[in-house]
Specification:
By secondary structure, the protein is mainly alpha-helical. The chain contains 33 helices and 6 strands. The chain has a 4-stranded mixed β-sheet. The protein has a two-stranded antiparallel ribbon with strand order 1-2. β5 and β6 form a beta hairpin. The radius of gyration is 27 Å and the shape is globular.
């Protein structure tokens, strides 16, 4: 190797070495688990490249970053399917076995493709791959380090999320027994927590660590996937104009898109944390404080409207808060779908199918057996189980993309456009329905119909939350229409679409879909148990969450497009203003990190990733008993504990061990079961077990619910007080654990 090349090689490795050393310094003993997950994702992604490279063949990196998610989705979903139909037990051996088989099949496919002259690996884009890996490692590390300052699986939805993981770690069948309803199985979208458990088993790591690692893994991908997608869109738009300073535009745009989706906030932060306090300070008034969740609880809260409390969260808030909920984990899968949609558009752009219509067999084979159409169907089917709202949202988005491409490929012939699009829609629905049947056949829906919205957001509230990306999108769409209509003599839809550059068209689709998602809760909402006072909350939450993701990528692309490609000064000014405001919204990240994690600039304050370490300080009376259960109890016998309201300290035993109890968080089970009479009866019977002096009655109830152990600790003493029948319960079995410092014990029922 020549000295200059050797020097360049060494210089290029410096950032990687620095990041590895920095991770060891920041994460301390947790770094081994972090490295294990990073390397696992890298290896899985590499071996999935034969498939990914085909699906993303129009991308310069051939979908390198998307390959990590595709690998997790394919291996994880196949394992889940085989377990759900009772072909395999849910064990580490099964997870590894299915993954190895998938790897072998991918290698065989790769060799077959190479013989046909197709190389699925981006061998000529090593520098690009290196940059993408560095960025992913850096953001994965950043979020993991932050998580170590607030690692507790305690508060908000964390008991549920962590409890699902523990329950599945114990279970050899899926769905696992509901930890808060021992007579039933989990009746919720548990796919996100499942993938966390799947990767935990596959990597041989511990769920106490991987609860936090899964959310930071998703956060890292929430930067990298938009970065890769928008970078490719800018490359495609610039085409041969990538000269001089424009060479770096794709990378800059990609990085900004990653930041926009995963790190930025909204204009609520700018107005209520920056502008208004500044004005108050100038006037000599008391400055209002700002709490970062305010940006997600605005409509119905400021001004207060008790009849219409809503939720409008976004990824950065989720990553800071730390809940491993369905909508959070599914971020990486919806970004994979969006990447596939753009790749599909690139592949279809220059196809002309009208000449093939006479050869019906070949024509329909190409329409219905298109690899990306099948991939759309598989992902959409999976969304039933990971987050059903995303199935509905992205079925519409996918339908829009497919419809527009059919208009182009079929040259605007209405009859054939409608026929082909309808056939493909039926195909997608059929595949999606069939592959997810092991879940849907056991799942009872929580939806109670659709209602007409009785309350509406104030106009300024909509502008504060979504005005910036929405206004930029509208300006861009109008400018694009004016530009194309001026030069087009034939104003048919086909001529209009064919004249629009592909990335422009895709950004328009995403932007308009996002605007539609924001508008829907102003018209209708999905009815559930939160009808009284929070009717629109869940609908607005789930729809606008995805709107934010699509807006994030659209906004950055639009700013690039108006600033660099457009010639009108007024549009450039709009882009500059939009860019400045976007950068300002990124201040939300610093505000929320400081408020939630604390002194992140001081590594000595790092607490570690163990999600259950809080038990030592917050549940000092129960921690030894909980640990005894984790160490000594196999499978999923029923362990009774006092039940309580949602978002309280109750159910700390079931949540931390995954062991089912008769009844857990009341509102959650109300949502999942929608049987208040049953829940109330169970609540009374749990109280009877802990308070009744009638031994026969207590014994009968314990047998009825097949209770193996009874936990008597802090919550039981708090709830039942002097009525607690500890001695009677002890007489019904054997005391297998007794805390020498506190009156906490575990009774094994005979």
């Amino acid at each position: 190797m020549k000295p200059d090349k050797a020097r360049n090689y060494i210089m290029k490795t410096v950032p990687a070495i620095a990041l590895v050393l920095l991770s060891a310094y920041l994460l301390k003993g947790d770094v081994w688990t972090f490295w294990t997950w990073y390397l696992l994702a890298a290896v899985l992604g590499f071996f999935a490249m034969p498939v990914t490279g085909r699906l993303f063949r129009g991308f310069e990196d051939k979908g390198w970053m998307f390959s990590k998610v595709l690998a997790v989705a394919v291996t994880g979903f196949i394992t889940w399917f085989l377990v759900s139909v009772k072909f395999l037990p849910f064990t580490t051996v099964s997870c590894v076995g299915v993954t190895v088989v998938c790897v072998i099949l991918a290698v065989i496919f790769h060799e077959s493709e190479r013989k046909n002259g197709f190389e699925s690996l981006p061998l000529n884009k090593i520098n690009l791959i290196y940059m993408e890996e560095l960025l992913f490692f850096a953001f994965f590390l950043m979020w993991t380090y932050f998580a170590g300052f607030h690692p507790a699986a305690y508060g908000t939805e964390k008991f549920m999320d962590y409890g699902f993981m523990e329950a599945m770690m114990r279970s050899k069948t899926l769905p696992a027994t509901d930890l808060w309803y021992s007579e039933g199985k989990i009746n919720y979208y548990y796919g996100g927590q499942y993938f966390a458990v799947f990767l935990t088993k596959l990597s041989g790591t511990k769920v106490e660590m991987t609860y936090n690692l899964m959310r930071t893994f998703v956060a890292g991908l929430a930067f990298s996937l938009p970065c890769s997608l928008v970078r490719q869109m800018v490359v495609d738009r610039l085409k041969k104009q990538r000269k001089g300073w424009k060479k770096v535009l794709p990378e800059i745009s990609g990085i900004l898109a990653g930041i926009s989706v995963s790190v930025a906030g909204n204009m609520h932060y700018v107005i209520y944390a920056q502008i208004i306090p500044f004005i108050q300070k100038l006037k000599g008034q008391e400055v209002d404080s700002y709490w970062f969740p305010d940006a997600t609880r605005y409509i119905g809260f400021n001004p207060v409207n008790d009849a219409d409390k809503t939720i409008h969260e976004f990824p950065c808030y989720s990553f800071v808060l730390g809940d491993l909920h369905a909508h959070v984990v599914n971020i990486m899968f919806v970004l994979l779908l969006l990447g596939l949609l753009y790749s599909f558009m690139k592949r279809m752009r220059n196809r002309k199918y009208l000449s093939e219509i006479s050869e019906k067999h070949t024509f329909w084979k190409k329409q219905l057996l298109h690899p990306q159409i099948i991939a759309f169907a598989a992902l959409l089917g999976m969304f039933h189980w990971t987050n059903y709202w995303d199935f509905i949202i992205y079925f519409v988005v996918t339908g829009g993309v497919v419809l527009f491409m059919n208009i182009i490929c079929l040259e605007g012939r209405a009859k054939w456009v409608i026929l082909v699009t309808a056939a493909q829609a039926v195909e997608v629905l059929a595949i999606a329905t069939v592959i997810i049947m092991p879940f849907t056949l056991q799942f009872e829906t929580m939806v109670q119909g659709v209602g007409i919205a009785q309350h509406h957001s104030l106009p300024h509230q909509l502008l504060v939350l979504w005005g910036l990306p929405a206004i930029l999108t509208v300006i861009y769409v109008v400018a694009l229409l004016v530009e194309k209509l001026k030069v087009s003599e034939n104003r048919s839809l086909y001529r209009l679409f064919i004249s629009v550059d592909l990335p422009d068209l895709f950004s328009v689709i995403m932007g308009l879909c996002a605007i539609g998602l924001v508008a829907i809760p102003e018209l209708v909402y999905v009815r559930d148990i939160y009808e009284n006072g929070n009717a629109r909350a869940n609908t607005m939450f789930k729809l606008t969450y995805q709107a934010y993701i699509m807006f994030g990528m659209t906004m950055i692309y639009v700013i690039f497009r108006l600033l660099v490609v457009c010639r009108k000064k007024i549009l450039k000014v709009a882009a500059v203003i939009g860019l400045a405001l976007f950068v300002w919204t990124c201040g939300y990240f610093g505000n929320s990190v400081d408020a939630w994690f604390g002194k992140v600039w001081n590594p000595s304050e790092y607490k570690g990733l163990n999600a259950t370490a809080f038990l030592e300080t917050d549940f000092i009376e129960d921690v030894k008993g909980i640990q005894w259960l984790k160490d000594n109890i196999k499978d999923s016998p029923v362990v009774l504990e006092a039940n309580g309201d949602s978002y309280t300290n109750y159910e700390r035993v079931s949540a931390m061990t995954g062991l089912p109890t008769i009844l857990g968080w009341y509102v959650h089970e109300w949502l999942w079961r929608n049987d208040v009479a049953d829940l109330n009866a169970k609540s009374q019977e749990v109280e009877n077990i802990y308070t009744s002096t009638d031994q026969a009655e207590v014994q009968k109830l314990l047998e009825e619910y097949d209770v193996s152990y009874v936990f008597i600790g802090s919550c039981e003493r708090e709830k039942y007080g002097e009525n607690l029948n500890s001695n009677l319960l002890k007489s019904l079995g054997e005391v297998v654990f007794q805390d020498p410092d506190y009156d906490t014990c575990i009774v094994k029922i005979k």
